[in-house]
Model the fold of this input.
Amino acid sequence: MKKQDISENQVNNVYLALGSNLGDRIKNLELAKSLINSKDMNILKISQFYKTESWPNKNFPYYINFVILINTKLNLKKLFREIKIIEKLVGRIKAPKNYPRVCDIDIIDFNGINFLTKYKNNKIIVPHKDMHKRSFVLLPLYELNRNWIHPKYKKNIVNLMTNLSNLDLRSINLI
Done:
């Protein structure tokens, strides 16, 4: 993996996956979208909203997910910090891993480059380490860029989607 060496002045193209499974999910996501657009990030494309079962615990409330393409001059660490601030502003509180949340924002792709870096006590891994296994990321990402190539595995998004199970594909619906 490459360490981050991107200049602050470079415009970075970034795919973000957003999700919510608590409260008024659509309102939460619309607020997150608005905050993203006001924090040195410009939204270029937005997928449709998708309804999915909670993962990995299907007994938790369902999610609404979507993916956006932004450009920003923020470097990866500053972008990560801003995303965490936005999650909190929308109402996210500390909870165990994979528990329901008001707002979750993951960096899916940062300039098509494979990164591993640290910010405070967090490891930042881009692309997101499990995104290639998740229909709720791949389908909205495909909607935005049918030619997207996974930075680590060098596979086209169509190839990644064909590796999803039929059950996984049936578990996601447009809203």
